Amino acid sequence: MSINQPASQNKLLNGVRPSRIVYPILIGIAVVVYMLVKEVDGTTLSLIEFSWHSLFWICVALIMMVIRDLGYMARLRILTDGTFTWSKSFRIIMLWEFTSAITPSAIGGTSVAILYLNKEGLKVGKSSAIVMSTSFLDELYFILMFPLLILFLDVNQLFMTDAPGHSLWLESLLYFALIGYLVKAGYFIVLTYGLFWNPRGLKWLLLWIFKLPILRKWKQGANQAGTDIIESSKELRRKPFWFWLKAFMATFWSWTARYWVVNVILLAFIFQGYSITEHVMIFARQLVMWIMMLVSPTPGGSGFSEWVFTKYLGDFLPSAGVAATMALIWRLISYYPYLLIGVFILPKWIKKHFRK
């Protein structure tokens, strides 16, 4: 496939060059500083007390992120039938997360992930099938979890807040979330149909994707990739139920650990005695936040994510200033580390696979 053409590779890798971390960092810091200057005062600082208790729960939050990444790595090993080692899986996941962190949330790192897998030894078709399988499993998690949470929680509480001036905005979230859920459900149906029933239709979708400007130079080779996907789809359809159950469980633990980071951060600074119901509500609101973050035009949702955090999770915190501080801590734990790790790994990876 023409994915090996140097010009095409350089064009794609130029989109994920390490220098791009400047934009999300500047945007995120600018928004957080604005919120902190506007909201933080002496009263806010008195409410936030760093102690050994805080340090313990911050460490737990970091452990949640480790569990998240281990889940992704385990899933990648399962989907490749153990072809990838843990170290190789770690490298790919970090590159994947770095790409997602420096591109708009709606784009993510999926397109470049195919290149990462291909350069680590998989055929393009199999790489495409694995990336689409990860999308299938991610969407399956959301498709199952969101209605379950809606079923067991108070919908009004999920989409309403006591924050002055934001009730109407949050009422509209119900419709926004439903539309987002329907879009995800439609995407999930297309993936399921393409991977397990009609891979030729998925091949057509791949050809359509390769019409995008960033991938257009590879469209001639996309046809061969589509053929490889058809063959890989046959292999995926032969996989036993246990194979998919293991892959989904890895996905489940990864996403669940990701969402629990916020809950743990709030436990680090106990402002009130959170009940189990409130923890589940905080967890559920993060699923809704994820829908909103998908439409963010900024790299990795930078700036937008911090703002949504303060407005949507502010109910569980004593003041807007505390919410802004918690948003900063949340992003320092769950977002910025991938920028730093990616800057360290990506140049070495490019040198190894592209520069002889």
Structural classification = mainly alpha
Q: Estimate the global geometry from the Cα principal axes.
A: globular
Low-confidence stretches: 1-8
The total tally of domains equals: 1
User: What share of the residues does DSSP label as strand, in percent?
Assistant: under 5%
What is the CA-atom radius of gyration, in angstroms? 21 Å
Describe this structure in a few short sentences.
Helix content is 76%, strand content 0%. With 356 residues, the protein is an all-alpha fold.
Name a few traits of the molecule.
mainly alpha; globular; TIGR00374 family protein; membrane; transmembrane helix; transmembrane; 356 residues; disordered N terminus; 76% helix
Describe this protein's structure.
Pfam families: LPG_synthase_TM. One of its GO terms (cellular component) is plasma membrane. It is a multi-pass membrane protein. It is a single chain. With 356 residues, the chain is mostly helical. It contains 16 helices and no strands. Helix 6 packs across helix 7 and helix 10 packs antiparallel against helix 11. 38% of the residues are buried. The N terminus is likely disordered.
Write the layout of secondary structure elements.
Elements: H1 6-14, H2 22-39, H3 42-47, H4 52-79, H5 86-101, H6 110-119, H7 124-152, H8 155-159, H9 167-196, H10 199-209, H11 219-237, H12 241-268, H13 276-294, H14 304-312, H15 320-334, H16 336-354
Helix pairs in contact: 2-14, 2-15, 4-5, 4-12, 5-6, 5-16, 6-7, 7-9, 7-11, 7-12, 7-13, 9-10, 10-11, 12-13, 12-15, 13-14, 14-15
